[in-house]
Amino acid sequence: xxxxxxxxxxxxxxxxxxxxxxxxxxxxxxxxxxxxxxxxxxxxxxxxxxxxxxxxxxxxxxxxxxxxxxxxxxxxxxxxxxxxxxxxxxxxxxxxxxxxxxxxxxxxxxxxxxxxxxxxxxxxxxxxxxxxxxxxxxxxxxxxxxxxxxxxxxxxxxxxxx
Length: 162
Fold this sequence. Notes:
By secondary structure, the protein is α/β, with parallel strands linked by helices. It has helices at 53-65, 113-118, 127-132, 142-152; strands at 2-12, 18-23, 39-41, 43-46, 70-85, 88-100, 119-125, 136-137, 159-160.
């Protein structure tokens, strides 16, 4: 199994809305397994060798959206999960960083060819919209987690999530 260190941004706009991509692996379709239905995911990707996780998250935001990051991202969550993506079993070792931007206009022209294949769209979501939606989010309890993060602020130590 391939290991993949990954960094993700819990990227909030001035109205505390979260930016998410809607993605789907075009090589996988299994109606009995909702994980392979389109789902909403935060900005992020692989940490390059020698790269810091927070730096990777900011780099990914620049590449994927051209949105500027205001201030220093704060590490809030960590997660390990097995996943089949593009035909490969991968152990993702993810760190999630809370960050802010002062803009909402997104430029996805920096997505590479593979990313464009599996990206169906994007939008800004409120925590309440996520919590009430029947759509699939990663992590699955994102609405509740985001509500807690907005109410209580970043934890003193990163929380391990499922």
